[in-house]
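Service request form, structural biology core

Requester: graduate student, group of Dr. S.
Request type: structure prediction, single chain
Budget code: on file
Notes: please return the result as structure tokens.

Sequence provided:
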Amino acid sequence: MLAQLNALDDPVNLQFQEKYGVIHSYKWFNDGYILIGFDCGYIISISAHRVEIGSELTSFLEYRSYLASIAVSTSFNKLLTIGDNTMKIRDLDELTNVTMVTEIDTEKSDWCTQKKIQFQVSDLSEIEVTEDGQLVAVSSQSGVLSVFVTKMPTLAASYNNSICYLTNLTQVTVVAEVEKKGSSTLELGIEPTVMGLGPVNLAVASNNTVFFYDYHTPAQMQAAQQLQSSQSAAEKPAIVNAEPINRVEYLSTVLNIQLSYMYAAVNFGAKLRLHRIRNSEDNPSIEFPEVNRNATLYAYALTENFLIFTTSNNYIVYFSLSEWAVVSEYRHVVPVRYVYPHPINVVCCCFDDRLDSFIYSAVDDEVFKLPSVGSSAHYKGAMWETFTIDRNTFAVYDSQNIYVFLLSKEHIQGDSVIYES
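Core staff response, request fulfilled:
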């Protein structure tokens, strides 16, 4: 029965085909349409709009034995159903196509077995989905609750030619030196929101706490890859239950983490803290920008030798890790929003508030503006070549193109930046 709120005394009685069975579940979707699930496995969609009220728009047999429950995620734009020990997902805009089918384990719990509780074949019970559509929970009459992840947050980090990325809500896979194809998956036991990768360490943040882990060195990765290749294809690589080597709490939510071999630079709020990764008696810690600068943090980057950061009063600052002191300061004409330092040399590629791109050398405070290529307003980032012969080569990229430049020291007019391709 359907009734409009302003006409409750004039309801519309709906009748459906007998083969559908009894209405078992229904959900509203797309502002005025209803999905109805029947116990014989059928699902139909009808309209609740006055001009076509009760009209059957779509009908299909979803399950042969029984349908237990249906759920709708408007943000995910999906219809989720359970029945016949299976979960199916369909797109609300194209209900005739199944986008995913997953079998659900409905083994009875030990408690149910001990109590000798018996259930009918229709073991699955209810399905619910979170508002953002990321988690789906399925319950069964035997007491089993299964939670599925429908979409993973995009979370990754890199260090030189090593990368790490989220492979499960609490698992991170580290690929050290990508060309060697060695990888290791760490079970962290927490759901990270921020990650940072260094040459030998992984850092993950949850709210205002950062956990630091060791991961395999490239040599160990290569040995692990050889072991994996000797296993059968059906065997999955082992997942390591990782224990943190250090845990540090900060004053507010962690926004970004960068690691070197010994140090971590952690951005929280408008502050940046630099400290050793491992606890020790000699464990210096310092926050930037310093109070006497009377400025806020704009950008930062960490290399093996320096911490580079920029401030709201236009400064680019080089802080030496070995000397534990500021060794270079340069005041630009406008604030610098992004810095991409060379991993070894004391030069960095910078993007400023005027949408200009330039190379800054901390040795002599020289600034070399990049040749006008493409639209600098759309530049997304920059990266340096680490191969020894071409280490003065760097690339700047936007959403569609990569532009390669060379920092030339043999130009007739002195150092300059040359566009290559």
